[in-house]
Amino acid sequence: VEGRVLEIEGSRDVVVPRGNLFRVELLANAGTGHAWRVEMPGVSPLEQVGEPVTRPVDRGVMGGRVQWQFTFRPVGSGSCDLVFNLVRPWESGVAPAKTATLHVTVQ
Question: Whole-prediction pTM value?
Answer without folding.
Answer: 0.87
